[in-house]
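A brief tutorial aside. Many learners find it easier to grasp structure tokens once they have seen a single protein encoded end to end. The record that follows does exactly this for Ribosomal RNA large subunit methyltransferase G. Read the sequence first, then the structure, and try to relate runs of similar tokens to stretches of the chain.
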Amino acid sequence: MPIFATPFAQLELLRQPEQQDDPLQAFDAADEYLLNHLHEQGLAADTRVLVLNDSFGALAASLASCAQVTSSGDSHLGHIALQRNLARNGLADAAVRFVPASETVKGSFDRVLIRVPKTLALLEEQLIRLHGQLAPGATVVAAGMVKHLPHAAGDLLEKYIGPMQPSLAVKKARLLIATPVDKPAVASPYPTRYELDQPRLMLINHANVFCREGLDIGTRAFLPHLPRSLGALKVADLGCGNGVLGIAYALANPQAELTLVDESYMAVQSARENWQAALGERPADIRAGDGLAEQPADSLDLVLCNPPFHQQQVVGDFLAWRMFVQARNALVKGGELWVVGNRHLGYHAKLKRLFRGVEQVAATPKFVVLKASK
């Protein structure tokens, strides 16, 4: 198991979801650089540290025994990784306070450590929310691997925190060190909204929602071909994003019971608000989760899925494959998984390994809609 060694701790850390013989580590040189910099500054036991976007808990777990640590991020899988990595290293779950990114972190923080997220809108929202949360003399340091660190990240730090100084690159990682100055409070530009014509919906999208400015083209290809099954079916929108697939299905099928699940807290927040705007108090289970891992076996009639093809900066189909396996386990015999995906991803062949039958329902030059029957 990979060991993450820093001046604060030596930890065994794993990513989530766990994969056998996973070649990827739960930490990188940017995590190491951040912690080495913090150690050089000095860290007392009563220092209040806020960690933002700690992918798998490497930063928060390293500091759990050394300071008062709060961690906040938008990934439910990241939260699970933090909990499991704390337990794996004999650290109490209560050693780190976790706050989902859908909630505002409250506190007076002396040190803020930020892993620059892939979505800069999330970084912007987090920096806006730091207003009034920094103690006198606080420091704010962001980090990333150079190849994933856009110039705009430094611009956002200067806009919302104060003067920013980039560090030299070390092991292909770089720090962005910001000195807080008094600035007026700023109204957040998030959530954003866009209107859908069919069905007629105004959709709310919080800062880290995929395709926040408009409907993504995969979902656009899927919507006209949603299954027409009527009746009191139990249906899940797996990886629901802002909830548009589940909401559209529910509007056309008033007796259906819907579950909407996503690993992004901000996606779930958006889906809840969009569901209420479109369907009022109609019951639905809308939750952050590790896909359908917690769904009882043989409990769903239909699963709708527009699966992701990346986890943070890592591109691959391992998350989609895992979602397909979860869907098969959760479906009743004869139940169906409906999927939209890029043609080149070859989901048809992958689904055939799991399901009794796979049909192509529709196609565009770029996307295919597939129906897999258990």
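Self-check: The CA atoms of residues 54 and 210 lie 19 Å apart. If you spotted this yourself, you are ready for the next section.
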